[in-house]
Design brief:
Elements: H1 7-13, H2 16-38, H3 42-47, H4 51-68, H5 78-96, H6 98-101, H7 107-136, H8 142-163, H9 174-195
Helix pairs in contact: 2-7, 2-8, 2-9, 4-7, 5-7, 5-9
């Protein structure tokens, strides 16, 4: 008989959607400003924002197919989520601190491509979240949980907007903000892992 998870547990498993949305809504509006802060021209700084749609177009299906067929003893989704979280933290740190370890005037040549890497890692992190919830939810719970995802995303949007109000110029505090957002993602994924149980795919 199929196990029926309470909706509140499924919502906790879906909780990382909040933190991923915070990350998207923070990095999207601030990336061009940060590129200009590092010395890129206005047109190129704006053009660099095509990274999100392009990387998502390719990364989503590849990550989805990988997690669908993963036979890890820890489950199909959680190993991919963990890999995504670790890679987001590394890429986010390198992107947001590029001006601190690169020679003066050269940081943009590292940060611009690193932004593309960061977008790839965010897609790796977010892709399995809905799949994990869909795996555990019954057929009757699928629609309510899709509604829950929309609500969680709206909460993430509001949180990202609030975070950007902490400093008058967010790009001058990119590392502090990125560190906090990565820590928030780690917290949400930790809660997800404490609640979720996956059966290994044989």
């Amino acid at each position: 008989m199929e196990e029926k998870w309470p909706l509140w547990k499924l919502i906790l498993i879906a909780l990382p959607q909040v933190s991923v949305q915070v990350l998207w809504c923070f990095i999207g509006p601030n990336s061009a400003s940060y590129m200009r802060h590092l010395g890129l021209t206005d047109s190129l700084a704006t053009l660099n924002n095509i990274a999100g749609p392009i990387t998502g177009f390719f990364t989503g299906p590849l990550v989805g197919a990988t997690s669908d067929s993963l036979t890890s003893r820890f489950g199909r989704r959680r190993p991919v989520i963990l890999a995504g979280l670790i890679s987001v933290c590394i890429a986010g740190t390198l992107f947001s601190t590029s001006e601190h370890f690169m020679p003066e005037g050269k940081a943009v040549y590292f940060a611009a491509p690193m932004y593309w890497v960061l977008d790839v890692t965010i897609n790796v992190l977010q892709t399995p979240h809905r799949a994990l919830v869909a795996d555990l939810a019954t057929e009757e719970q699928q629609i309510p949980m899709q509604v829950a995802f929309v609500v969680l995303m709206s909460i993430g949007n509001f949180m990202a907007f609030s975070i950007m109000k902490i400093y008058k110029s967010p790009v001058d505090h990119m590392f502090e903000l990125m560190f906090g957002i990565c820590a928030f993602n780690a917290l949400c994924v930790g809660i997800q892992f404490l609640v979720a149980r996956e059966k290994p795919l044989k």
